[in-house]
Amino acid sequence: MLVIARYACATLPPALFLGLGATLWGGFAIIALIWLTLFAALLDRLLAPPRPEADDHEPWSDGLSLLLAVLHLALLPLVLVALTGDMLGIGQKLALFFGTASFFGQVSHPNAHELIHRRPRLYRALGAAVYVSVGFGHHVSAHRLVHHRFVGTADDPNTPQPGESYWAYLPRAWTGSFRAGLSQEQQRLTRRGKAPRGIENPYWIWSGGALACLGAAAWLGGVATALLLLALWGLTGAQILLSDYIQHYGLRRLTLTNGRLEPVAPHHSWNAPRGFSSYLMMNRPRPFRTSHAPRPPL
Questions:
Q1: Comparing 255 with 95, which gets the higher pLDDT?
Q2: Residue 240 burial by CB count (10 A; 0-12/13-18/19+): exposed, middle or buried?
Q3: N or C: which end of the chain has fewer CB within 10 A?
């Protein structure tokens, strides 16, 4: 429990500050933004990164993951209402907007990523709901069906090409992962003898859920609220793809003599072992499944 308590101490306060900033006093939003930026940078210099643990399951880890996902889903409407309301000043609104985007990209994404790899269907559904709420539901399909299989190759849209800048990578990976994930889902349904564009294709959920979120935002506060949601989506998606860009830049899997790709191994991804950021981004103390193996330091 001691290890998970460290993750809780890193991840729960900014969620609390953002919620308070959206409902009580905008100064809390400024505190949240400082926590996720300056405070994190300072503690990264002072704290050691978490050690890999032998146990595959740390007590209380499931509870923390579920709580963070629920907090994410609760924060989103609260923040949108606050951003279009009259309670906050312009500086407080900017802090709330960028603090929320940072929390979604640095905490909600790693946590949802953990959930979509879990066995209980409820956990996977909750992780998928988090991605849908930030307009990135297709990541559930693309990450599991494409990235895990083709990482470190030209067939993975989320693996940067040699010499490719992040700004060139961003639109290519965004659209490429959407299309590649859709193709894999259609092939999967075809192999099962089902219609590739039928209702069982989860892309109906990824796309329909995003449209439903936009509609709910417009209902809450009109076009301005929907546009703010789109802006939050853009910043969150950019952070999700930035993590893949940094993690896999310059690393390629070799083609073996039998024509197959070498198995995914720790040396196919980078890691920056920073003390506080590791806890903030849910670098959980458990074995990295498949492509989640421990990574070499950057």
A1: 95
A2: buried
A3: N
